[in-house]
Design brief:
Strand order of the largest sheet: 1-2
Number of domains: 1
Radius of gyration: 15 Å
Number of strands: 2
Order of helices and strands: HEEH
Number of helices: 2
Helix content: 40-55%
Mean pLDDT: 82
Low-confidence stretches: none
Shape: flat
Length: 80
């Protein structure tokens, strides 16, 4: 189970990373007009984490990406 302190460390790391990305306009200069995503991965002494943030003018794009990820998770669990 994810402990409170672990969750706080993960969110803190993600927030700091996103703040760093957001302060540099060059990170957004060549994004597509209608759909983009951001992926960050990290770890600490207890485990690993990742976050995916997406934006789309079409909600179907985001829904499809979530469905793809959910299928990938199921496939990965099935391999173990």
């Amino acid at each position: 189970m994810l402990e409170d302190d672990d969750a706080i460390r993960v969110i803190h790391a993600i927030a700091n990373n996103l703040i760093g990305v957001s302060k540099n306009n060059i990170n957004f200069a060549k994004l597509p007009d209608t759909f983009w995503g951001y992926f960050a991965r990290g770890h600490d002494g207890k485990g690993k984490f990742a976050v995916i943030i997406t934006y789309s003018e079409s909600g179907d794009d985001v829904d499809e990406l979530i469905k793809l990820y959910e299928r990938w998770v199921v496939n990965q669990k099935g391999k173990k």
